[in-house]
Write a structure and sequence with these properties.
single chain; 413 residues; alpha+beta; Immunoglobulin-like; 2 domains; 6-stranded mixed sheet; 3-stranded antiparallel sheet; 12 strands
Length: 413
């Protein structure tokens, strides 16, 4: 009862806001078209209209583009500001547009101003509201905002990467109810804009949250990670390589590279591979009905993607759900669904690419499919038995956890 009431209370204002903006958009479109149509000699093309009214070309292009749209929400999103619209009305009236049509258009502009102020407080916030109601507009605005965040953080942090990724390969363990995993991660074209700062390039938990026994992380040759053993796949990486140092903190391994060891501006490719037995549950238990693979970008990146490669006997009917969570002071989530208040509403998706390593090519990482096949060979697994899911995010938010959640199957009696 409580959840239904809450749902109704949140949906009603949204509908009211959408209707109000739509009414304003229809009024603007109708009245502005009427003024231009009634102005003697006014052309219909934006460039000619700019010359005819002696107004800025950008103003003319935005005006014509907005009033041609059929969706009134799109009209409100694209229409010029009130000052520019009033400039058009003043010039149009001077060139013979009927006064009553100009006054009607002025009335619609005042309604537009009032809606912007009451609903958003600013035009930027008002357009954000509209973008949430128009998926194509929202996607464009999200990308622009994430790109701006990338540019700002690259300058402030002093480094960025072209592509950051993780490929998690999961196969049933030889015995028991668990699955083994291989983690193949990479930072492509890491550029240090300022030296002398240590950069973390890889992190992995050493213990499994829903399993009592510790999971010892090894490199691809089954040598335990720790001390001087850093799971860098040197044949994939740039040459020469910087020096790495492994840090152990609160049950996790962290690999860092010192900024002094990476030439400023020179791009560096870093790839890491690890094998960890017993990292995932194979079947549902009384305590756990879901498993997840996640990736949290820790540096400004143009692209981040998560590939999950599941053996045909691992969660065979599962289709992952993609969620993105802010981490902040609470850190990464160890269980799916426990911090819904931290979920970020972004237009991202996960796709099933198919089965086998021939389906995993990407323009984001050169020779990616070949490297994945090499990883499979090193650990002795058959990559053709794995189906592949991918979540790709352009300009991912820093420290936002990208999580793919899978429903666990029941174990056959």
């Amino acid at each position: 009862m409580t959840s239904e009431t809450a749902s109704q209370s949140t949906s009603a204002p949204r509908n009211t806001i959408e209707q109000r903006i739509a009414e304003v958009g229809r009024a603007l479109s109708h009245s502005l078209r009427a003024v231009l149509s009634a102005t003697p000699g006014a052309p219909k093309r934006a460039v000619e209209l700019s010359n005819f009214l002696e107004i800025d070309k950008t103003l003319s292009v935005r005006l014509i583009g907005a009033i041609k749209k059929h969706d009134p929400l799109a009209v409100c999103h694209g229409v010029p500001g009130p000052r520019g619209l009033r400039t058009v009305l003043t010039v149009a009236q001077a060139k013979g547009a009927p006064r009553e049509l100009v006054e009607e258009a002025e009335k619609s502009i005042r309604q537009f101003e009032q809606s912007v102020q009451e609903l958003g407080g600013s035009r930027t916030a008002f357009n954000t509201i509209i973008s949430s109601l128009l998926p194509d507009v929202r996607e464009r605005i999200e990308r622009r905002n994430k790109k701006a965040a990338f540019d700002a953080m690259s300058n402030l942090w002093g480094y960025h990467v072209s592509t950051s990724f993780i490929a998690c390969m999961i196969q049933p363990a030889a015995q028991g109810n668990m699955c083994d995993s291989v983690c193949f991660a990479g930072k492509v074209e890491m550029r240090h804009l300022t030296p002398r700062v240590a950069r973390m390039v890889w992190a992995q938990k050493c213990t499994v949250p829903n399993w009592d026994a510790p999971a010892v992380s090894c490199n691809l040759d089954r040598v335990p990670v720790g001390g001087d053993q850093v799971p860098v796949i040197r044949e994939f990486c740039s040459n020469p390589l910087p020096e790495f140092k492994l840090h152990e903190y609160q049950g996790s391994n962290y690999v860092a590279v010192a900024g002094d060891d990476v030439p400023s501006q020179a791009p560096v490719d870093l790839f890491i591979g690890s094998h960890t037995p017993g990292t995932f549950l194979r079947y549902k238990t009384r305590e756990t009905s879901k498993e997840f693979v996640s990736f949290t970008p820790t540096e400004p990146a143009k692209v981040a993607f998560v590939d999950v490669l599941l053996h045909e006997d691992v969660w065979p009917d599962a289709m992952p759900q993609l969620s993105i969570y802010r981490t902040g002071p609470r850190g990464n989530m160890d269980h799916p669904g426990v911090r819904e208040f931290d979920k970020i509403d972004l237009l991202e998706s996960v796709r099933l690419l198919g089965r086998g390593t021939d389906r995993i090519h990407t323009n984001d990482v050169e020779n990616y499919a070949s490297m994945v096949r090499t990883v499979f060979t090193r650990v002795g697994w058959n990559g053709e038995l794995f189906r592949v899911f991918r979540a790709r995010v352009e300009y991912p938010l820093l420290h936002a956890q990208i999580m793919l959640t899978f429903d666990l199957p029941e174990r056959d009696s």
